[in-house]
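Incident review: delayed structure delivery

Summary: a single-chain prediction request sat in the queue longer than the usual turnaround. Root cause was a stuck worker, restarted by the on-call engineer. No data loss occurred. The affected request and its eventual output are reproduced below so the record is complete for anyone auditing the incident later.

Affected input:
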Amino acid sequence: MTRSDLVAKLADRFGQLTQRDTEFAVKTILDAMSDALARGHRIEIRGFGSFSISRRPPRLGRNPRSGEKVTIPEKLVPHFKPGKALRESVDERQRASGDAAAKPVE
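Output delivered after worker restart:
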């Protein structure tokens, strides 16, 4: 699902909102989440999951073309951990759809 898919789905579901209002609401929410993560805060949405910042330590890598060693600096990256309700919902829907990936290997 893309951002525009989300906007379209919300606009369809809530007829009193225009496409423009829905787009503004989605942008505002995503911007607020980005700003919170940039400030180092943790975001928790009950039943959905939590977003936090993970630290990737500096490491030594290699340039695949030349084989030369390259120092890769420390990075702070967003991390999403799904909540229990989301994990169970996804698992249940995968099983109901009969998806081969959801079937246990025997």
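Verification: The chain has two domains: 1-39, 42-100.
Action items: add queue-age alerting; document worker restart procedure.
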